[in-house]
Design a protein that fits this description.
The complex is a heterodimer of chains A (254) and B (203). Chain A has eight helices and ten strands. Chain A is α/β, with parallel strands linked by helices and 254 residues long. Helix content of chain B is 80%, strand content 0%. Classes of the chains: A alpha/beta (254), B mainly alpha (203).
Chain lengths: 254, 203
Amino acid sequence: MKFDNIIETEELARYYEIGGEVIKALDGVELQVRRGEYLSIVGPSGSGKTTLFNMIGGLDRPTRGRIIIDEVDISKLDAYELAWLRCRKIGYIFQTFNLIYTLTALENVALPTVFAGVPRDEGAKKAEAFLTSVGLGERLAHKPLELSAGQQQRVAIARAMINDPAIILADEPTGNLDLHTGTDIINLIREMNKTRGVTVIAATHDLKMIGASDRVVWMRDGKIEKIEKGGPGEVYKEPLGASGLSSGAPSHYD
Amino acid sequence: MKKGREVGRISFSLTDAFRLSYHNVRRRFSREVLIMAAITLGIAFFSMLSLTDAFFKAYTQTQGGTLQVESYQYWLVFVSLAVCIVSITNSTIIAVYERYREIGTMKCIGALDQHVLELFLAESIILSLAGGALGFVLGLIASILSVGFTVGFGIVTRISPVVLLSLLGETMGLSLLLSTLATIYPAYRAAKLNPVEALRYEV
């Protein structure tokens, strides 16, 4: 059976030079992400997760290698094309939510539609529908700081989804949330993945997130260590990457 | 392989820039008031002098005499406007630091460099118009008081509205120019920010 890959990386490498020393943040990563799958990326800090994210998200350019999204090599795109990619194809969810604090929940969610050229009324209507679908229909006019952490992350998820992206990049989406709220957020992301068919790539320390995923990519020292099938049972053993797990989120072990 | 050129349009109108900037000015009011105060004070001093000059001219045309604004006073205005530019630049640089994450986020959802630039310039235009108008009013009051106590308040009615309006126009233009000059460097820096670094930045 042939899989339809939405993302492929070929020999992807990113080197940084800090104080004359070359740091290999990514060193020859070969990864295929299937359309509609929920992929978790796990690894200790400094393993290259975030760098890989930034590459896929078009926020950073590789030193060598290629990233192909929907058959387009994005390392060859110019600034305008990358902006369009970030606006329409990719939705970002961050550990720190990164909402704009001067705007209401509704305006935050509607913001990507502004860049997408959607008329204002239509964007606002769409944003309202998305906020309602994440359970915040009553909180449209609230500013981010008037919302709880979990609610802020819901706003961020609605914002990430509003332009109907093909890919959601979630960098530690439950990192700043308590156990219960974190579970809700994972379920919500998983639901978006199932019902809307959006491909989810989540970097995480959180065992609950690994349990929810179709596949788990273990990273170490800028390389892919192994790729496992996800789901509970697979993840609770202590593999090589466990040091990063335990230092990252000990509270998630219960 | 398909060519990457088949992308759609990114849109961000000036109206959008002004709308977002207006929200920002309202929400970060205390900081924005400080930036505005720099403009207001500089402009108030400038317009006080230019209005006093206009009043003196109106007076000497009808009453004769040699009343005029001393040239060293213009030098003082020049220095105060230079200080005004420096302090606006300084405040805006700090404002950019505070908004690092916001800028990174905007870039993540599709903003181009030029859109970030537009946001900061739109804000500077809003502040300079408000600060310029307020400065002109303060300058007007100060000049009426100073001229009034020198040659009598009757002079106030003798200045032509055309002169007054053209001075207002001049003042607003100057305010806009100063504010833009002061903002362009920090705004450019904000626009050029790498989103990866902007998002990593801890305030």
